């Protein structure tokens, strides 16, 4: 089977061009979707601030996982290995420590 990669043009609006900082990700799921909450936990604040929520189908989450794996391999080939500071469990605080995700 000969598969061609499709090129997709993406318009980036100025208000989105700067991106959203996140050092905390919470991942939950139901039978039909995965919910990825990206937040930031800043010093002096009692609660994390949600920056973005992404809701995806299980198939698209698996595609994302594979794309991330490919990109991490390419990154490490160019810049050396990435050494996680914490064990992964599906839900993590990217600034250190980690929490427990819940299934909904």
> Distance between termini?
38 Å
- In the predicted model, the low-confidence regions spanning at least 5 consecutive residues are 95-104
This entry's quaternary arrangement is single chain
Broad structural category:
alpha+beta
Name the helicity range: 10-25%
Number of strands: 4
**What is the overall silhouette?**
globular
Report on the biggest sheet: 4 strands, antiparallel
Radius of gyration over all CA atoms, rounded: 16 Å
Strand order of the largest sheet: 3-2-1-4
Average the pLDDT over all residues and give the rounded result.
84
What's the SSE pattern? EEEHE
Number of helices: 1
User: Roughly what fraction of the amino acids lie in strands?
Assistant: 15-25%
